Amino acid sequence: MKLRREPALGLLLLCIAAVLSCTGKTENEKAAYDLAGRIVPAYVKHIDFVEVPSATDFFELSSEGKKLIVKGNNANSMAMGLGHYLRDYCHVSVSWYADDPVQYPEKMPVLGSPERVLALVPDRFFLNYCTFGYTMPFWQWRDWERLIDWMALEGINMPLAITGQEAVWLEVWQKYGMTEEEIRAYFTGPAHLPWHRMCNVDGFDGPLPSSWTDSQVRLQKKILERERALSMRPVLPAFSGHIPGRMKELYPDAPITDITAWGGFDKEYLPHFLAPTSDLFASIQKDYLEAQTALFGTDHIYGVDLFNEVDAPTWDPETLAEIGRKAYESIAAVDPDAIWLQMGWMFHYDRKHWTPENVKAYLQAVPEDKVVILDYYMEHTPVWTITDSFFGQPYILCYLGNFGGNARMIGDLHKMSARYDDVFSNGDANFRGIGSTLEGFGVNQFLYEYLFDRAWTLPRDDKAWVDRLADRHMGKEDETAREVWQDLVDKVYKTTSTSGQTTLLCGRPTFRGHWNWGCIYWVDYDVDDLAKAWKKLLETDSDRDTYRFDVVNMGTQVLGNLAPGIREEFTAAWEAWDKEKAKALSEKFMGLIDDIDLLASCEPQLCFQKWEDDAAKFASSPEEEAYYRENARRIVTTWGTGDGIRDYASRQWSGLVSTYCKGRWNLFFTRALQALDADSPVEMDDFNAECAKWEEDWVLENHEYSRNDTPSDYKALCFNLIEKYGI
Predict the structure, then answer these.
(1) Is 202 exposed, middle or buried, given 0-12, 13-18 or 19+ CB atoms closer than 10 A?
(2) Strand, helix or coil at 341?
(3) Model confidence at 8, in pLDDT bands (50, 70, 90)?
(4) Exposed, middle or buried by CB within 10 Å (0-12, 13-18, 19+), for 265?
(5) What is the C-alpha separation between 314 and 353, in angstroms, rounded?
(6) What digits encode the pLDDT tens for the residues 327-364?
(7) Which residue of 66, 251, 567, 625 shows the fewest CB atoms closer than 10 Å?
(8) How many C-alpha atoms does 292 have within 13 Å on its Cβ side?
(9) Are 615 and 138 a contacting pair, CB within 8 Å?
(10) Rounded to a whole number, what is the largest CA-CA distance in the chain?
(11) How far, in Å, CA of 631 to CA of 615, rounded?
């Protein structure tokens, strides 16, 4: 099968043709044509997009001769129709990453009969505050453009849109007496801004450069324009009570409380919270929303999260009800059409305080249908089942899927399927939608594709869905690949995501177990099942980039699963004072690290160099370049101060493995072997202190991550590694 990979000139000519074909079309039809022109430009002249009014989102696909007809009630529905056609009829996988090409057959498949599909829910939500730190802090418009296209192709119509808000806060806080320098020092570094926005940390890795805030305003305007063109309702932020410490001096009588702990941060970085019941809260809300609307417009839906992983001032239902009522009224006073979108993570995370009684008081203080709750972590605990469906307020059931963007094959499609079956059957009339609150992008894109397919009346069971997943990753129907993916879904993807899931080599070294909760190695599957699936997939062949990713990603996971066994053998030899064997095993472990790094270097998605280089693009001076690179290194390693969330966002990426991970394990083995030579124990407290200093030094230094020995034949490398390790 021939594939399209458009050269620059060819793509330009096709896009011009697409523009000309849009004459006389509605705005929604034009937006759909433009999307097709970006994703499959060679197909545009063979597609007719037709807008048909409907109160329910729908799309319809049919063929007229060689022409594909895509009907829908808006641009988003038509985009979902195109996405369904590409995925299920053309065996095409569109990545959420701009660097991944879209590979599609030259000849468009013809449909045998029309297909009409309805949306089961009106709202399809996507993103998480954390995603803006673990995946997107250093994205340019090119990256966002692809993500928005991907969202449209998946039928997502309610994306979180929090980029650029620091520029608004610069305007607002100056109005309340602060200087620009004070405000920039209050902001964190770019990658840490999500937790600043959620009232978790202030000032860390600041002050925030003006090059950043200026670029983000321009970026947000483009993001919102494109999302709105594709019939999405972006969720913009509103004021949630988080204020600078300087405001305590400027407004000494205001009801301001200090956040006393979060993430192990020193007191100087902890935020301050203004009670929503105060007049000052309402005043700041008004100024913020008016300034934001002037700059970015509004779709009348606002994200407001008052107590994300922090305590409320008090836990009695009456006070919580008053806080909820006042928070909503502060928004509605500015925008009478406002809908408050409340992140429901706190209802799961802190069930000790957020009892059903307190949740009910807090939510029912807001007028009915004026607050929508994201049931944030349904694969672990669907909170709707323990709160009487959120006591009548609308809710969106969300799949989280990963914490920190850790590179692990984690998820449970069967559990996800059962929980969506349950909510569709028993979720009550206020069940409003489905969504994802993933903390980072990475290795498990297919689970999110499955999730959003469940929002529509697509006539297939889970087995058929997985078969089609295998087809589009191969670019063809391949029974062996289908068997591999069914085995993966049945035998490997059987674990609900939790924090700290990564491979052993990504955590700080220890003789046994794991060092802290931020980086915990464990698997809930037979590692041989993954190894068998990897070897079976290697028996097939495809020229698709998705196939290469699957092979390389599975291989790095298989190799990573070898690390605990080697570490345990080393510990046993060390405790037996067998110096020669311990040394040999340490060298074997270090060699494994090298092999994982080499294999990961074959897949661009798994390379650390781009992460840092993307951060550097925002710099306007050498000093700023060093600043951005340091911030990029920190978020995926040491994270903050102390040991609170160190290693939380660890990635098994080439470059990071060969420098940061390898450096720490080298230090560990060196100290352990030196202890054998000196006939003395290893004092782990001393080692951890030394390692912490080494980690901080690593963050502050520049490194070279790219390899000059990455093999062109990644499959040959895989076969060599299988033989080397006896897999």
Answers:
(1) buried
(2) strand
(3) very low
(4) buried
(5) 10
(6) 999 999 999 999 999 998 889 888 899 999 999 999 99
(7) 66
(8) 28
(9) yes
(10) 84
(11) 8
